[in-house]
Amino acid sequence: MITVKQLSHHFEVGKKGQKTILPVLKDISFHVEKGEIVAIVGKSGSGKSTLLNLISGFIQPSEGEIWINDQRVTGFTEAQFADFRLEHLGFIFQSFQLIPSMTAFQNIELPLTFQGMDAAKRKELTKEMLDKVGLIDFQDHYPSELSGGQQQRVSIARALVLNPPLILADEPTGSLDSETEADLLQFIQQLNRELGTTFLIITHDDAVAGIGNRSLTIADGRLLEDGDSL
Amino acid sequence: MRLKDRFSFVGQNIKKNKVRTFMTILATAMGCAFLIVLASIGYGLQQTVVDDTMEQQIVTQIDVHGHEGKDGNYQPLTVSDIEYMESIEGVKAVTRKKNLQQMPVYQIEDYQIEAETVVADFPSELKSGLELHEGRLPKEDNEIVVGYDFANYLHSESDGEAIYDEEGKLKKEYQYKGKLIGKTIKMTVSKGEEAGKEQTQTIPLKIVGMTEKPTREWMEDAKVYISQQVLVEVEAFTGTAKGVIPDSDYEAEDDSNTFDDVKVYAKNLEGVEAISKQLDNANYATYSVVSEMKQINVLFTIAKAGLILVGTIAIVIASIGIYNTMTMAVTERAPDIGIMKAIGANPKTIKQIFLLESSYIGIIGAIIGTIVAYGVSLLVNSGLPLILEMAFDEELPEGLKFSSIPATLVLIAVGICLLVTILSGMRPAKRATKIDVLKAMRREV
């Protein structure tokens, strides 16, 4: 599903003419199989979020290459990556990233609209997702009218509505209390079992890492271990 | 993403900033209305001038004033010239008139009039489309046709100045009230004084027809149309060409066979230009309403282009408002744009949504501007003549139109409006596509 080969990345910091190179990731290689839940763990500033952003195509790597679903996504143009994301990737963010002026229904419907689906089909799929995440009664609520857990459920529903083979989650439980966190993790496992969706989860939380088939640890931009089967 | 959904997005975005969008639309509408009203004055005046010119003249008519001789001077037209003109392809008729070089006195019963007299070639007049108001065309040499207003100037011989009104027209009660057709009228011509006594000759003529009423209200036709034979008779009496009253300075010139008024009639409007060109090439001095129209249209096209250019400046100023509105919209929605891009919105789609939004402002502004411009035009056309008449105490020319908005002007204005608004929305739309996803989601844009 995901193959990362000798991936390195650095940021240029400082003013123009006085820039310094700040290495973030160094020679990272790993592979994620279809249907796996893989946790990437590490301390703050270890480079795990940068790794996720590189896989997501939000930034381009300095070196190395990334393959998703047998497609080399490194070198994709912004437009190509946008289309690729729509078809293959779903995102769950720590801060939910819902559009505040849209209702729960409209937020979930958004990827379907971008895909050019007709309104009737969109409505059907969105309702189905709302039902699945248990928010059918909250469909007309704006994000500000929902709890953190409910917002994250909307975010998950939006990520899953197009049934992508891969979900990238960045600290999905970071903004949730322990009870809601447990519910959400259970929900992720259920989706993985029922739909066979692959999850790549960035976390520093052991409980989150615990639901994965295996975890990859990053420290100082380097991958420490790979393949610890749980 | 479907077009319908893009429109729905635009609608949602506009709803979020109703007042700002309304003000931008208002500015665009004012710019568009200003452009249309300004240019409509050019269109209105052009229409007035063109209509006026067309009404005064027959559009298929070409006036031929003379022929340029080898010495560079214009020579009067003769029968050979007429024959040449008749041979040109597309010519329907060539009418020719000779003016009697004195004003004979015409007398019927106790009424009389001094009238301009011309010799017309009636067969060619008939071919050119001449129609009579009453009666028929002359068949005999002593038969004549009189102008439509001839009777209005026939007055009693003994009447003094009191018979005329303020405008110099004969008062109704003094006008001849009898029928003219079929009546015999005496034409008295003079050849000046001999031994202190005026030498005159009276020729009896029969009125058989009356010309059509002139097309314009202010035009009058009180002429008398006589035959060539009557002219010969007058010339025989005066001993001069075309009946000139001889005096000590008179030099006999053989211009009896030259024509004073020659008109070529084309079969259709399309033929006028070609015939005019051929006549010009053959060194004839011509004038046609078509050539005048050309000059008028060129002049007004330049004027209209200038007015449209000035009006466009108003739209360009309004476009600054659109640019500002769209830039603010992009800045405000940067986090949303970031989220959309993250979940798979194509940058092209985002650009199109913003372009659609600026186009929407342009279209609505142009529609409102056009409606307002029609209203202003209506007010100008109905109100301005009244104000001017009251201010200057003078009646304005009949049919004067200050403002006219043809469909082409609306299309030009809407086109300019749309182009300017799309261009002004282009940069903000491009900026929207360049928004960094990560920065936008961190609310750093």
Automatic annotation (TrEMBL), chain A:
Per its UniProt record, what SUPFAM superfamilies does this chain match?
A: P-loop containing nucleoside triphosphate hydrolases
Q: Where is the ABC transporter domain?
A: 8-230
> Which intervals of the chain form a coiled coil?
none
Which one Pfam family would you cite for this protein?
A: ABC_tran
Q: Name one GO cellular component term.
A: membrane protein complex
Q: What top-level branch of life does the organism fall under?
A: Bacteria
Keyword Hydrolase found: no
A single Gene Ontology MF term assigned here is: ATP hydrolysis activity
Is the keyword Endoplasmic reticulum assigned to this protein? no
Q: What keywords appear on the UniProt entry?
A: ATP-binding, Nucleotide-binding, Transport
List the PROSITE patterns hit by this protein, alphabetically: ABC_TRANSPORTER_1, ABC_TRANSPORTER_2
Family stated for the protein in its record: Belongs to the ABC transporter superfamily.
Protein name in UniProt: ABC transporter ATP-binding protein YtrE
* Gene source species: Lentibacillus populi
Gene name tied to this protein: ytrE
Automatic annotation (TrEMBL), chain B:
Q: Where does this polypeptide localize?
A: Cell membrane
Record domain ABC3 transporter permease C-terminal: where: 309-435
Q: Where are the transmembrane segments?
A: 21-45, 298-323, 360-384, 404-424
Where the record annotates domain MacB-like periplasmic core, the positions are 21-280
Q: Which InterPro entries match?
A: ABC3_permease_C (IPR003838), MacB_PCD (IPR025857), Macrolide_Exporter_MacB (IPR050250)
Q: Which UniProt keywords apply?
A: Cell membrane, Membrane, Transmembrane, Transmembrane helix
In what way does this protein cross or attach to the membrane? Multi-pass membrane protein
Q: Name one GO molecular function term.
A: transmembrane transporter activity
Taking the first listed entry, what is the main subcellular location of this protein, grouped into a coarse class? Answer: membrane
Q: What does UniProt give as GO cellular component? A: plasma membrane
The record's similarity note reads: Belongs to the ABC-4 integral membrane protein family.
Matching entries from PANTHER family are given as: ABC TRANSPORTER PERMEASE YTRF, MEMBRANE COMPONENT OF TRANSPORTER-RELATED
* Name by which UniProt lists this protein: ABC transporter permease YtrF
Organism expressing this protein natively: Lentibacillus populi
